[in-house]
Amino acid sequence: MWLKKRKNKTATAGRVVAADTVALPKGAEMEHPAGSEVVAEQVQGILGYEFKDTSLLIRALTHPSVTDADQINDSYERLEFLGDSLLGAFIARVLYERFPRYDEGCLTRIKVSLVSGGNLSKVAESLGLADFIIFGSSERGTGKRGLASALENVYEAITAAIALDGGQDEAFTWVYRTLNLDEIDDSAAKIENPKSNLQEILQVNRITPTYELVETSGPPHARTFTSNVLSDGKVIGTGTGRSKKDAESAAAESALKRMRGKENRKKPE
After folding, report:
1. Catalytic residue, candidates 156, 165, 248, 253
2. Of the listed 31, 84, 139, 152, which one is catalytic?
3. Which residues in the chain are classed under CATH 1.10.1520.10?
4. Hey, which of 175, 188, 205, 227 has its CA 20 to 30 A from 39?
5. pLDDT for 65-109, tens place per residue?
6. Domain 194-266 adopts which CATH fold?
7. 128's torsion region: left (phi>0), alpha (psi -120 to 50) or beta?
8. CATH number for the segment(s) 19-190
9. What is the pTM of this model?
Protein backbone atom coordinates (compact mmCIF):
# COMPACT_ATOMS: atom_id res chain seq x y z
CA MET A 1 0.00 0.00 0.00
CA TRP A 2 0.98 3.65 -0.42
CA LEU A 3 1.34 3.99 3.33
CA LYS A 4 4.56 2.00 3.23
CA LYS A 5 7.87 3.67 2.50
CA ARG A 6 8.87 3.25 -1.12
CA LYS A 7 12.24 3.90 -2.74
CA ASN A 8 13.69 4.18 -6.23
CA LYS A 9 10.70 2.85 -8.09
CA THR A 10 9.80 3.97 -11.60
CA ALA A 11 6.58 2.67 -13.12
CA THR A 12 6.74 1.35 -16.65
CA ALA A 13 3.39 -0.36 -16.90
CA GLY A 14 1.87 1.95 -19.49
CA ARG A 15 2.64 3.06 -23.00
CA VAL A 16 2.48 6.35 -24.89
CA VAL A 17 -0.82 6.63 -26.72
CA ALA A 18 -0.59 7.56 -30.39
CA ALA A 19 -0.75 11.27 -31.17
CA ASP A 20 -3.97 11.00 -33.13
CA THR A 21 -5.80 9.58 -30.10
CA VAL A 22 -4.70 12.26 -27.60
CA ALA A 23 -5.18 15.74 -28.97
CA LEU A 24 -4.02 18.95 -27.39
CA PRO A 25 -6.96 21.14 -26.36
CA LYS A 26 -8.22 23.58 -28.97
CA GLY A 27 -6.23 26.80 -28.81
CA ALA A 28 -3.12 25.14 -27.40
CA GLU A 29 -1.48 24.16 -30.68
CA MET A 30 0.63 27.33 -30.86
CA GLU A 31 1.91 26.72 -27.35
CA HIS A 32 3.08 23.18 -28.14
CA PRO A 33 3.28 22.79 -31.91
CA ALA A 34 5.10 19.47 -31.61
CA GLY A 35 1.86 17.80 -30.58
CA SER A 36 0.59 15.80 -27.64
CA GLU A 37 2.75 12.72 -28.20
CA VAL A 38 5.98 14.70 -27.81
CA VAL A 39 4.64 16.63 -24.82
CA ALA A 40 3.52 13.42 -23.11
CA GLU A 41 6.81 11.66 -23.79
CA GLN A 42 8.94 14.51 -22.44
CA VAL A 43 6.83 15.06 -19.32
CA GLN A 44 6.73 11.35 -18.52
CA GLY A 45 10.52 11.42 -18.58
CA ILE A 46 10.42 14.17 -15.96
CA LEU A 47 7.87 12.37 -13.81
CA GLY A 48 9.53 8.97 -13.88
CA TYR A 49 6.12 7.48 -14.59
CA GLU A 50 4.69 6.21 -17.88
CA PHE A 51 0.96 6.67 -18.34
CA LYS A 52 -1.36 4.05 -19.74
CA ASP A 53 -3.79 6.85 -20.58
CA THR A 54 -1.82 9.94 -21.61
CA SER A 55 -5.01 11.98 -21.98
CA LEU A 56 -4.97 12.21 -18.17
CA LEU A 57 -1.50 13.71 -18.30
CA ILE A 58 -2.45 16.22 -21.01
CA ARG A 59 -5.46 17.28 -18.94
CA ALA A 60 -3.28 17.70 -15.85
CA LEU A 61 -1.12 20.14 -17.83
CA THR A 62 -4.00 22.16 -19.31
CA HIS A 63 -4.67 25.58 -17.79
CA PRO A 64 -8.37 26.61 -17.49
CA SER A 65 -7.72 29.53 -19.86
CA VAL A 66 -7.55 27.00 -22.73
CA THR A 67 -11.03 25.55 -22.35
CA ASP A 68 -14.58 26.82 -22.53
CA ALA A 69 -16.46 27.30 -19.29
CA ASP A 70 -18.73 24.31 -19.92
CA GLN A 71 -15.87 21.91 -20.67
CA ILE A 72 -15.08 21.13 -17.05
CA ASN A 73 -13.17 17.95 -17.86
CA ASP A 74 -10.74 19.54 -20.29
CA SER A 75 -8.53 21.42 -17.81
CA TYR A 76 -6.68 20.46 -14.65
CA GLU A 77 -9.23 21.91 -12.21
CA ARG A 78 -11.06 18.69 -11.28
CA LEU A 79 -7.78 16.76 -11.10
CA GLU A 80 -6.35 19.52 -8.90
CA PHE A 81 -9.28 19.07 -6.48
CA LEU A 82 -8.58 15.35 -6.16
CA GLY A 83 -4.81 15.79 -6.03
CA ASP A 84 -5.04 18.31 -3.20
CA SER A 85 -6.90 15.78 -1.04
CA LEU A 86 -4.58 12.90 -1.91
CA LEU A 87 -1.50 15.01 -1.23
CA GLY A 88 -2.80 16.01 2.19
CA ALA A 89 -3.57 12.39 3.09
CA PHE A 90 -0.18 11.12 1.92
CA ILE A 91 1.77 13.71 3.88
CA ALA A 92 -0.41 13.46 6.98
CA ARG A 93 0.24 9.72 7.22
CA VAL A 94 4.01 10.12 6.71
CA LEU A 95 4.18 12.78 9.44
CA TYR A 96 1.96 10.78 11.79
CA GLU A 97 4.29 7.79 11.55
CA ARG A 98 7.56 9.74 11.44
CA PHE A 99 6.90 11.91 14.52
CA PRO A 100 4.94 9.91 17.12
CA ARG A 101 5.64 12.45 19.89
CA TYR A 102 4.51 15.58 18.02
CA ASP A 103 1.10 17.04 18.80
CA GLU A 104 -1.56 17.97 16.26
CA GLY A 105 -0.48 21.60 16.06
CA CYS A 106 3.13 20.73 15.30
CA LEU A 107 2.17 18.15 12.68
CA THR A 108 -0.15 20.68 11.06
CA ARG A 109 2.61 23.30 10.80
CA ILE A 110 4.91 20.85 9.05
CA LYS A 111 2.15 19.70 6.70
CA VAL A 112 1.17 23.27 5.82
CA SER A 113 4.77 24.11 4.94
CA LEU A 114 5.02 21.08 2.64
CA VAL A 115 1.74 21.62 0.79
CA SER A 116 1.94 25.41 0.63
CA GLY A 117 1.48 26.96 -2.76
CA GLY A 118 4.97 28.39 -2.68
CA ASN A 119 6.59 25.04 -1.97
CA LEU A 120 4.62 23.08 -4.57
CA SER A 121 5.27 25.78 -7.14
CA LYS A 122 9.02 25.67 -6.50
CA VAL A 123 9.07 21.88 -6.75
CA ALA A 124 7.14 21.88 -10.02
CA GLU A 125 9.39 24.60 -11.43
CA SER A 126 12.55 22.75 -10.39
CA LEU A 127 11.28 19.70 -12.26
CA GLY A 128 10.95 21.75 -15.44
CA LEU A 129 7.16 21.55 -15.69
CA ALA A 130 6.78 25.27 -16.45
CA ASP A 131 7.75 24.59 -20.07
CA PHE A 132 4.90 22.14 -20.54
CA ILE A 133 1.88 23.85 -19.00
CA ILE A 134 -0.65 24.44 -21.75
CA PHE A 135 -1.97 28.00 -21.53
CA GLY A 136 -4.76 29.60 -23.55
CA SER A 137 -4.24 32.78 -25.54
CA SER A 138 -5.85 34.95 -22.84
CA GLU A 139 -3.31 33.86 -20.23
CA ARG A 140 -0.40 33.97 -22.67
CA GLY A 141 -1.41 37.58 -23.37
CA THR A 142 -0.71 38.48 -19.74
CA GLY A 143 2.83 37.12 -19.96
CA LYS A 144 1.67 34.05 -18.02
CA ARG A 145 1.14 36.16 -14.90
CA GLY A 146 -0.47 33.18 -13.19
CA LEU A 147 2.46 30.82 -13.78
CA ALA A 148 3.35 30.34 -10.09
CA SER A 149 -0.24 29.44 -9.24
CA ALA A 150 -0.47 27.19 -12.30
CA LEU A 151 2.68 25.29 -11.26
CA GLU A 152 1.14 24.51 -7.87
CA ASN A 153 -2.11 23.39 -9.49
CA VAL A 154 -0.33 21.22 -12.04
CA TYR A 155 1.64 19.46 -9.32
CA GLU A 156 -1.61 18.56 -7.56
CA ALA A 157 -3.29 17.60 -10.82
CA ILE A 158 -0.41 15.32 -11.78
CA THR A 159 -0.66 13.64 -8.37
CA ALA A 160 -4.31 12.85 -9.10
CA ALA A 161 -3.63 11.80 -12.70
CA ILE A 162 -1.00 9.29 -11.60
CA ALA A 163 -3.35 7.92 -8.93
CA LEU A 164 -6.16 7.47 -11.45
CA ASP A 165 -3.87 5.92 -14.05
CA GLY A 166 -1.72 3.65 -11.92
CA GLY A 167 -3.13 3.66 -8.40
CA GLN A 168 -2.33 5.45 -5.17
CA ASP A 169 0.94 3.57 -4.68
CA GLU A 170 2.35 5.20 -7.79
CA ALA A 171 1.04 8.63 -6.77
CA PHE A 172 2.57 8.23 -3.32
CA THR A 173 5.92 7.31 -4.86
CA TRP A 174 5.81 10.51 -6.94
CA VAL A 175 4.97 12.68 -3.91
CA TYR A 176 7.49 10.97 -1.63
CA ARG A 177 10.31 11.46 -4.14
CA THR A 178 9.57 14.97 -5.38
CA LEU A 179 8.83 16.48 -1.96
CA ASN A 180 11.91 14.77 -0.47
CA LEU A 181 9.87 13.26 2.37
CA ASP A 182 12.88 11.11 3.26
CA GLU A 183 14.64 14.26 4.44
CA ILE A 184 12.05 15.45 6.95
CA ASP A 185 13.65 15.38 10.41
CA ASP A 186 13.22 16.94 13.85
CA SER A 187 14.22 20.37 12.56
CA ALA A 188 11.00 20.45 10.56
CA ALA A 189 9.06 20.63 13.82
CA LYS A 190 10.59 24.04 14.51
CA ILE A 191 8.88 25.67 11.54
CA GLU A 192 7.61 29.05 12.67
CA ASN A 193 4.04 30.23 12.38
CA PRO A 194 4.22 34.01 11.75
CA LYS A 195 0.69 34.68 12.97
CA SER A 196 1.22 32.79 16.22
CA ASN A 197 4.60 34.43 16.82
CA LEU A 198 3.18 37.91 16.24
CA GLN A 199 0.27 37.24 18.54
CA GLU A 200 2.59 36.06 21.34
CA ILE A 201 4.70 39.20 21.01
CA LEU A 202 1.76 41.62 20.99
CA GLN A 203 -0.10 39.91 23.82
CA VAL A 204 2.71 40.93 26.17
CA ASN A 205 1.13 44.38 25.86
CA ARG A 206 -2.38 42.91 25.91
CA ILE A 207 -2.88 43.61 22.21
CA THR A 208 -4.48 41.11 19.86
CA PRO A 209 -3.55 41.54 16.18
CA THR A 210 -6.40 41.82 13.70
CA TYR A 211 -6.38 41.20 9.96
CA GLU A 212 -8.24 42.94 7.16
CA LEU A 213 -8.52 41.97 3.51
CA VAL A 214 -7.73 45.08 1.47
CA GLU A 215 -7.57 43.81 -2.11
CA THR A 216 -8.49 40.85 -4.29
CA SER A 217 -7.10 40.76 -7.82
CA GLY A 218 -6.58 38.41 -10.75
CA PRO A 219 -8.89 36.05 -12.64
CA PRO A 220 -11.00 33.48 -10.73
CA HIS A 221 -8.49 30.67 -11.36
CA ALA A 222 -5.51 32.72 -10.12
CA ARG A 223 -6.69 35.04 -7.36
CA THR A 224 -4.21 37.14 -5.40
CA PHE A 225 -5.20 38.44 -1.97
CA THR A 226 -3.67 41.35 -0.04
CA SER A 227 -4.17 41.72 3.70
CA ASN A 228 -3.08 44.13 6.42
CA VAL A 229 -2.35 43.21 10.01
CA LEU A 230 -3.22 45.83 12.60
CA SER A 231 -2.03 46.41 16.14
CA ASP A 232 -4.21 48.67 18.26
CA GLY A 233 -5.85 49.92 15.06
CA LYS A 234 -2.58 50.73 13.24
CA VAL A 235 -1.30 48.85 10.19
CA ILE A 236 1.98 47.16 11.09
CA GLY A 237 2.36 44.79 8.13
CA THR A 238 1.02 44.00 4.66
CA GLY A 239 1.24 40.76 2.70
CA THR A 240 -0.07 39.02 -0.40
CA GLY A 241 -0.85 35.39 -1.14
CA ARG A 242 -2.87 32.99 -3.24
CA SER A 243 -5.37 32.58 -0.39
CA LYS A 244 -6.57 34.84 2.40
CA LYS A 245 -4.70 32.64 4.88
CA ASP A 246 -1.43 32.97 2.95
CA ALA A 247 -1.91 36.75 2.71
CA GLU A 248 -2.43 37.02 6.47
CA SER A 249 0.67 34.92 7.16
CA ALA A 250 2.69 37.14 4.82
CA ALA A 251 1.36 40.25 6.57
CA ALA A 252 2.36 38.83 9.96
CA GLU A 253 5.84 38.00 8.64
CA SER A 254 6.12 41.57 7.32
CA ALA A 255 5.23 42.93 10.77
CA LEU A 256 7.77 40.65 12.46
CA LYS A 257 10.52 41.82 10.08
CA ARG A 258 9.72 45.45 10.88
CA MET A 259 9.89 44.72 14.59
CA ARG A 260 13.22 42.96 14.23
CA GLY A 261 14.55 45.90 12.24
CA LYS A 262 13.55 48.35 14.95
CA GLU A 263 15.15 46.19 17.63
CA ASN A 264 18.41 46.03 15.67
CA ARG A 265 18.50 49.82 15.27
CA LYS A 266 18.06 50.28 19.02
CA LYS A 267 20.99 48.02 19.91
CA PRO A 268 24.16 49.95 20.92
CA GLU A 269 27.12 49.55 18.63
Report:
1. 156
2. 84
3. 19-190
4. 175
5. 886 544 656 789 999 999 999 999 999 999 999 988 887 877 887
6. Double Stranded RNA Binding Domain (3.30.160)
7. left
8. 1.10.1520.10
9. 0.62
